[in-house]
Structures are given as structure tokens and as C-alpha cells.
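Lecture notes, unit on binding sites. The following record was shown on slide 14. It pairs a sequence with magnesium ion.
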Amino acid sequence: MSTVPELFGSQVFNETVMKARLPKDTFKALMKTRKEGQPLVSDVANVVANAMKDWAVEKGCTHYTHWFQPMTGITAEKHDSFIYPVDGEKVIMEFSGKELVKGEPDASSFPSGGLRATFEARGYTAWDPTSDAFIKDDTLCIPTAFCSYGGEALDKKTPLLRAMNALNKQAMRILRLFGNTTAQRVNTTVGPEQEYFLIDRELYLNRRDLVYTGRTLFGAEPPKGQEMEDHYFGVIKPRVKAFMKDLNEELWKLGILAKTEHNEVAPAQHELAPIFTGTNIAADHNQLTMEIMKKVAAKHGMACLLHEKPFDGVNGSGKHNNWSMATDTGVNLLDPGDSPRENAQFLLFLVAVLEAVDEHQDLLRISVASAGNDHRLGANEAPPAIISIFLGDELTAVLDSIEQGKHYAQKDKEVLTVGVDELPPLSKDATDRNRTSPFAFTGNRFEFRSLGSTVSIACPNMMLNTIVADVLEKYADRLEKAKDFTKELNVIIHDAYHDHKRIVFNGDGYTDEWIAEAKKRGLLNLPSTADALPYYTRPENVKLFEHHGVLAKDEVFSRRDIQLENYAKQLHIEALTMVDMIYKDILPAAGKYMKDLSEEVATKTSVCAGISAEFEKDTLKELSALSDSLYKETKTLQKAIAGEGKGSVQEQAEYARNALFTQMEKTRKVADQIEPKVGKTYWPYPTYGDLLFSVL
Ligand code: ADP
Ligand code: MG
């Protein structure tokens, strides 16, 4: 393989391969399943399985796996070889339709948030034929959904697929009302921009905090940070360039449309953006991208950090979720277009998103809530924990004029009456200047920017699709009943904007004034995961998910519990790691340095009586006091750890936030004061400077 087009998709059992390798009827039946969700009959499954196996074996595969996305947030796989014994002594390579369509991994060791208690431990994986099988590490991977024996979703993908269907159903109703007879399906499209850090692998392995928790729990500020702003879009260093080249090739082989790469704001921070695809494919691809980033980094002697906040004091990493809705005929429903009919339809979809985001701020906040992301949201670098929408001045002015029934300044029309008028052309540049908004309209899509770098994009998009579907349903109900379509359309757009414009904020989201203003507007501000999660199970939310067939009541509760548990567990591990590092490394290092300093004072004064040894004595005093203080804070932290595990999952999460997290911050502060005072050869870990400027 040499050229990129040859490389692209070479490890994917995609439509081209299917067409070439499957009998015509089988291919047709499979396409029907893919496009219309028809169940796959076993004869067809057998033929497909056999063709897949032959293809995979030719490419060196010995194993297959059902590849799924349990609630751990990462992917899971259990490998089986294709071997099948014949004649007592020989084997052949076999793969049946049954094995392709359904797997039965033991579900009991995956998080189920209580669903396991009421149902059998057995779970099963079911092939998602809309996502292509692919080869990774000589194994044929079959993308699947993962359910409990009773059919409850135990994964991130099933609810996403359900939500995509919900949105399709309602958006299609709207399109039909606008006279569109050609589109058969509306899909949501997503392009996730992935941020990450690259550091030297040797140094990484010397930091147990990074290895155990993904972030540094200690680290004094280095002499140089990101203040020079010399990294963003800077020249990519040769070692990083080599990594990116390898990474792109691996991603292309898997049919992932890796497109844009650049240095990010913080030193050692980078970004990769693929070209957007359908949402469930984008979710699969993003999981694969994160996994492959780590693998390729290791091959290049580096570690790829995907944590939201690996380093205190420098920018953390996010994942911008560019989202839109598009027909199967290729029309982007959030493209303003240039004819009146398209404008009106665009404005309706636009206000639907506005209304959905305003009505369901809680769900969007929940969809990005994690221990790691709590460090970003609300810090001065990522969008705040308050959800608001940036529309840009032009679009806001258009909607304002509609609301007020007034003249829109740029046009010589009296009133923009939506159904018949033409929108003034929106300049694309004007819509993308704001970088602080959590949810920004960027010309022909929305960019949901609150996602942390580690998070699976499945949940945020499941939420987005569900809430927008819900609003579209209301609109479709009204429009279908309306006697005068245009009039009703105008009323809907007018009212939606009027009632929900509090969610629009075009200013700087990083300021304290915005926090006060948002409070005045009645917008939710849920700073931590523990604050956000209780909203998940509000009766209206349960009703929403049930109504659209996205999550059953049990599934909502289980998801809330899993997220809370994960949060408490993450903080628990961080606290234990902190204690471990203090006793095993930091205090002993400070002790050794103090001992050497004391000996130096003793030696100096014995050689030369009356010598001052000011530096040694001062440092000794300071370090001794700081060591005592660190010891005291650590004991308090240990007490906090001992108090864990009481009450409901919600109470445990709150405890983790209030008792553990707060005490960890205090403890760290002292350790970070010790670090600069201890001689370099004594300090047990690579410093921030070492880590951030390690890859040259
Ligand atoms: P920026 O950093 O300026 O926001 P990037 O080029 O890094 O832009 O990323 C933009 C992302 O948005 C890409 O993944 C791109 O494919 C995606 N995108 C563009 N149009 C759409 C769309 N209609 N729906 C979803 N994603 C889109
Ligand atoms: Mg970008």
C-alpha cells in the first residue's frame, strides 16, 4: 500500500468490499438492513459472516471480537479465534452468522448501575450493521450494541442509535410539511475535534499520578508555561510530526477521515479533527482515534494524555462536538441557504435547537459531567458550567427583528416575516469569533464545546438528538394541525425565540459578570458532577426519554448511578495516589535533602567555626515547617478517605467533592511549595518543566 486513497479504508469491511464479495441478493438484503433497519435473516447472516471471515483471514486475522462501548466510557472486546476442529486433529477457520449477529459476554463485570441486580448477569452484544466491521491488531472487530438479558442498554451506543431514530422521525415530519418528498431519512452529523497532550514516555512512567489517574496531582509551576502563546499553531516538532504521520495512516486504514492537525494553546498540547460523519460512526471513530493515539504514541516513545486536566495552571483538553442535521440526500438542515423557503425551514430548525438547549440545560450539562471535566468547566479556559448559546450578532439581530416585528437594519424590508422573506446573507466569519461559548452556532452547525477530551461523544449526542427531537415533535404537531402553515410557522419561530432567548449570550463567558447575569436570567449553574447528576432522574426527564424510546426509567436511574459512582471512584483513586506519593516519595525526598543540608552545616562549622551557613539553615527551617504541614494535611486527607462509602451514591459523590477534593487541593498546595526548595537530584519526579517541554 502506498498512496493515501489506496490506504484509506483498507482495513474496513465497507460497502465496496461487501459489493465485491457478497452474492447480489445477500448484498441487497444487507443494504436493506443497513438503511431501513430490517432484521437480518439467518441465511443472509451466514453468507455475510463467511465473506467477512475470508476477507479477514486473507488480511492475516486469526480472531474476531464483538467490539462494544460499555458504560466504562472505553471500548471492550473479547477475542475468539476462528478455529473449528475437524477430523479430530485438524482445524478450519469458521465464522457463522450466529456468531456475527450475537455474542454473549458475561455482563457482570461491567458497570450496570443496579440493572444487574434485577436481571441476569448475562448480557449480549448485537451487531450494529450500520457501522462497518474492521481489522485491528489481526482481529476482526464487529461493532455491536451491548444489552442485558432483559434488553436494557448496558452501553453508550444503544441509546445513541435510539435517539438518532427519534430525531429522524420528528425531523422527517417537518421536512414533509415543507414539501420535501425526496429525503428518506434525517441523520445527525458530527465532527469531533480531539485535543491531547504528548509527553515523553520515560518521564510519564516516572509519574504514578499520571499512570494511575491520568493527571498530575503535584507539580510546581515551571519557569515557562503557556504565557508566550508560542505553541498555538506553532511549527510541529519532528517527533510529533512523525507521530501524526503514523497516526493518520492508522486512522485512514480504518476509514477514519483524519483531516486537521495542529499545536494547541498549552505546550505539548495538540489537536486532531476528522471530517464529520454520521453520529454513530463518529462515536465509533472517536473511540478508535483515542485508542490509536495512545498506541501510536507508545510506539514513538511518548505517552498520549487524554485527561481533561493533566496539568494545573495550563490549559486542559476538550473535545468540540460539531453537530448538525442532514438529510440522506445531503442537505444540511442548519445551513441558512439562500432562498426564502430554505431560510424559513432553517430558522425553524435553528429555534428548535435554541428551545431544546434552553429547556434541557441540565441534560447537556450532565452529558459532559465527569471528575476530569470538572477541572475545566468554570476554569478560565473552557466554557463555563453554565450552558448558553452563541448565535453571533447577525443571526441574533435577525431573530430580534422577527421577535419585535421590526425592520431588519440590513434589508429594506419592513418586517422579516419568515415564510416569504429572504435572510440577509450571513457572513460565516462573523459567527465564529466567540471561543468562550459552550454552544456556538458556527455558520452551518452548532459546536458543543463543553465536552471533556476523554468523554465518549455518544452520551452528549444522545442527549442533543433527544431534546431536539422533542421540540421538533411539538412543532410538527402544531404545523400538521395548522390551517395556515405560514402563519403558524411565523408564530412558532417568534414564540420560540421570545420564550427562550435568555439562553442566547454572545459575550465573554469567562467573566464573573456573566455568572451573575446568567443567574438573573434563571440559567442553571451546576459547577460539579455531584451538583449536575441529580437532575438526570427528574420526572420530566424520565418522561422525555421514555416518550422517545431512548431510555427506560430503569436505564435513566442506572446511568445516573454509574456516572456518580465513577466520579466518587475517580476521586478515591486520586486521593489514595496522593497519599501514596507523599509518604513514599515526597516526604522522604525532602527528608533526605534536609539530612544532607544538616550534615553540610555541621561539616562547614566544624571546618570553619562561626561560618554562617545561612542558605542551609533557612532552607532547613522552611522545609522542616513545610514537611510538618504536609504531614498534617495528609493525615486530614487520610481521615477523609476513611470517612468514604456512606449513604447513597449521590451522598458519596457529594462527599467525594466536599471532603476529598477540597482536602486534596489543600494538600497539593503544600507539596508544591516544597518542590522548588528541594535540590534537583533529590526530587523524585520529573517536574512540570520536564514534562511539558520533554518532546523536542
Ligand atoms: P475549528 O477549529 O475552526 O472549529 P476545525 O476544522 O478544527 O474547525 O473543525 C471543524 C469540525 O466541524 C470538523 O470536524 C468538520 O468536519 C466539522 N463540521 C463541518 N461541517 C459540519 C456539519 N455540517 N456537521 C457536523 N460537523 C461539521
Ligand atoms: Mg479546531
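Take-home: Residues 193, 271, 273 surround magnesium ion (ligand 2) (CB under 6 Å).
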